[in-house]
Request: fold
Amino acid sequence: MDRMPDRPESWVWLSAWLEHNWPALYAGLLSAAIAVLRIMYGGGTLRQLGLEAPLCGLVTTAGTYGLPLIGIPATAAPFLGGVIALLGIEWVRAKARRTFDRKVDQL
Reply:
């Protein structure tokens, strides 16, 4: 079996991928960590902790790739992650549903 240290091109590829995607990964991890602490501080259940924290991280990671589309630099991704984590996934979902419903009604 080939070991990874024997294939330096794999490390180069991984390093380049991490450099390109680091803002989104960092923002997602930060969002999940803040959500965990917020839920623990608020006395949430273990189920809520296990579901909401990863959801906050994934929503943040997905949203990070859309920031440049609306003119916000990708370096602002950790701020987006902190906001999503502090407000919670239910708040984000309610706002998204309201926005999409408004857009559908306009069609």
In short: The radius of gyration is 17 Å. The first helix runs from residue 8 to 41.
